[in-house]
Design brief:
By secondary structure, the chain is mainly beta. The protein has strands at residues 6-8, 13-15, 18-19, 23-26, 29-31, 34-41, 46-48, 51-58, 61-73, 78-90, 95-102.
Length: 104
């Protein structure tokens, strides 16, 4: 898992877009787009919006578009996404629904 530089705690809801240069971990709720070097949605985290990142890890819920070089969808995650990535890892019991573009 990526090291976290910024964290959105479980008691926080953000309605709006987030831009950063580090790794952002979402324990709370984001209704908006996230653009950063790395994005991690923790088990209790929820994102409704698009994600652009070099690395994306989901343990929680996302509904939107994801564009990242590497994507990890962890056990129990819910992924309702249009996905574009070079490298995709899907663990057992991860839910994935949507379109996938994988490769160069």
């Amino acid at each position: 898992m990526l090291m976290t530089d910024s964290r959105i705690s479980s008691d926080v809801t953000i309605d709006g877009d987030i831009k950063g240069t580090s790794t952002i971990t979402v324990d709370g709720t984001v209704n908006g787009n996230i653009q950063s070097e790395g994005v991690v949605i923790a088990a209790e985290g929820k994102v409704t919006g698009n994600v652009i990142a070099k690395s994306f890890v989901n343990e929680g819920l996302i509904a939107g578009k994801v564009s990242a070089e590497t994507v990890e969808l962890k056990i129990g995650s819910i992924n309702k996404i249009a996905l574009s990535t070079k490298t995709l890892s899907v663990e057992p019991s991860a839910f994935l629904s949507g379109k996938i573009k994988c490769g160069g």
